[in-house]
């Protein structure tokens, strides 16, 4: 088993101050309003965040068990810096996000409820700048921010109760409760590896990636360039990705349409190609 250590959150925050990735000053307020459009206050009150995190941690552990984590501490540090710069501009301030690299040549990225985000080595090898990495991470973060897995599994607060259905599953001491929790985890993994998210959830994640990248000062066009590149990389490395995601032509068109509609000019934001190249070179 490879090194499974993920950078502590407090260290990510400290190092984040050294990485200036702010949005353009004139657009800051408008983009923040768009990025903050998420769960309602009633939903936030009724959901048990700790149990969402506990559930997500179990799903994340299964992902790590399947692929293993990169033992490259410098690479993990870099991924966390980029991820945390996006997380501070998202709409889930109650979550502590964790970012790591899965030790596989498969081209993919995964989101687990509660704030666990993974990018594969294979995906990193296909990227050419930091904005492409940010776009992939922002897409996965939107799945978490919008609670796509949690909502798809019907894990939500019951009427008149502040305790979520997920909390009852995890907290239950009976064998039935443990089986139900295990089944929920398996369903979440099926979404990641077999069935995929709902199409509308993928659309929302792509649109959310555009907004989140713009808020953080990254070129949202990075995700377009990345999709165009991996669209030609068909084969075993993209097997799971192709099976669980919509066609890239449609996704690329949607991204371009969203950028146009929102008045985002790709050239007005940063791609950080040199910084990305330097960071990955140091890890080799």
Describe the structure.
- This protein has 284 residues and is mainly α.
- It contains 15 helices and three strands.
- Helix 1 crosses helix 5 (73-87), helix 5 packs antiparallel against helix 15 and helix 7 (130-145) crosses helix 12 (221-230).
- The protein is globular, with a radius of gyration of 18 Å.
- Mean pLDDT is 80; it is low at 1-46 and 157-163.
Keywords:
three-stranded mixed β-sheet, about 60% helix, disordered N terminus
Could you give a quick summary of the protein structure above?
The protein is mainly alpha-helical and 284 residues long.
Query: The biggest beta sheet, please?
Result: 3 strands, mixed
Helix count? 15
Total strand segments? 3
> Unreliable stretches, pLDDT < 50, 5 or more residues?
1-46, 157-163
Q: Give the strand order of the largest sheet, numbering strands 1, 2, ... along the chain.
A: 1-3-2
- SSE string: HHHHHEEEHHHHHHHHHH
Shape: globular
Cα radius of gyration in angstroms: 18 Å
DSSP helix fraction:
55-70%
In whole angstroms, the N-to-C terminal distance is 20 Å
**Computed structural class:** mainly alpha
Strand content: under 5%
Mean pLDDT: 80
Would you spell out the secondary-structure blueprint of this structure?
Elements: H1 9-16, H2 28-35, H3 41-46, H4 49-67, H5 73-87, E1 98-102, E2 109-112, E3 116-120, H6 121-126, H7 130-145, H8 148-152, H9 165-171, H10 175-195, H11 199-216, H12 221-230, H13 239-244, H14 248-261, H15 273-283
Parallel strand pairs: 1-3
Antiparallel strand pairs: 2-3
